[in-house]
Structures are given as C-alpha cells and as structure tokens.
Design goal:
Helices cover 36% and strands 23% of the residues. It has helices at residues 10-17, 22-66, 73-87, and strands at residues 70-71, 96-104, 110-117, 130-131, 144-154, 166-174, 183-184. By secondary structure, it is α+β, with helices and mostly antiparallel strands. The protein is rod-shaped, with a radius of gyration of 30 Å. The chain has one domain. It has a five-stranded antiparallel β-sheet with strand order 4-3-2-5-6, with helices on one face.
Amino acid sequence: MSRRRPPPFGVWAGFWRDRRGVSAVEFALIAPVLIIMYCGMAELTQAMMAQRRLSNIASSIGDLVAQSNQTGPLKTADIFTIGNTIMAPFSTTTLKMCVASVSSDATGKDTVVWSKPSTTMTTCPAAGAVLTDVPVGVLPASKTVILARASYVYTSPIQLVMPTSLTFSRTYYLRPRKTDSVLWSPTS
C-alpha cells in the first residue's frame, strides 16, 4: 500500500489561514506589558501612601508639641510612638522624627532652643544651632515656632518598576498655641 504525501507547502498554507490561536498569541504578546503596568501602578500607589503618611506624621507630632506648655523626654517618646502608629502598616525601621523649638531674636537670627530626635537623624538641628533655612514669614522676630521634621526611606515590596529606595522628607513649622514658647523640662 502506498502512502500519499501531502504537497510540500499545503500544510503551511493551511497553518497561515487558521485563525483559532490568534487571541492566545495576542494575549501572550500583550500580557507582559500589562503585568508591568499593573505592578508599576501598585508600586507607585504604595509609595504615594507612604509619602502621605509621612506628611501626616510630621504635622501631627508638631501639632502635639505645639499644644503643650512644656515637653520633655517622656512626652516626646509618647509622641514618637504616635508617629510610629500613624505609619502603619508600613515598616517603621527607616522612620526618623524630630521636634525642636526655634526662637528668633530681635534681629531675626533663628536659634534652636531645644531639639529631640526619635533616633539618630542627621537633619535634626542641634540645640544652639543657628538656622538659615526657615522660610521667610514663618518666624517673626522675637517669636518661637515648633519645628517638626520626619523622613522615611521607602522600599517597594515588589521592586519590579522601582528597584531602588526612595527617601521622603517633610518639615512643618507650627506656632505654640497656649504660650509664647514650649519649654523643655527633663522631668516631663
């Protein structure tokens, strides 16, 4: 019995006309792009949420200090605990916070009266330091403000689109509410 051989191009001609797998091929080509876009939007959204929480932390810790007549190590430790709570569900290992009282003399020279960082923070001014970066109009002559500063290093959990860490930093200046200046007391 002899077998018939198909024409050499007959099989391929039918292959090119067959449209049954077109959708699967198109999906296979577009799926990686869609996955990257989805992961990128998720990473961007998480980073924006972390940045907003950091802004809330800086304004909240400054506001809590500005509402007091005096503060000290115990009160600021509680305030920094509140800052850590606000940052949840993000990790707080890279969160750094700082509160300080800044006073301006009659000539407009801005000096740090007291300062308290939550951890080692290079951008937290030391007591007695003269500040030159206080925005104009924030601190009038012979007045004081509370400086609240927070920084956070955000690392994406996916790291597909954002493989490197981002550092967010926020600074707020708030005027004391109950007195002319918030005093530092080692016992409070």
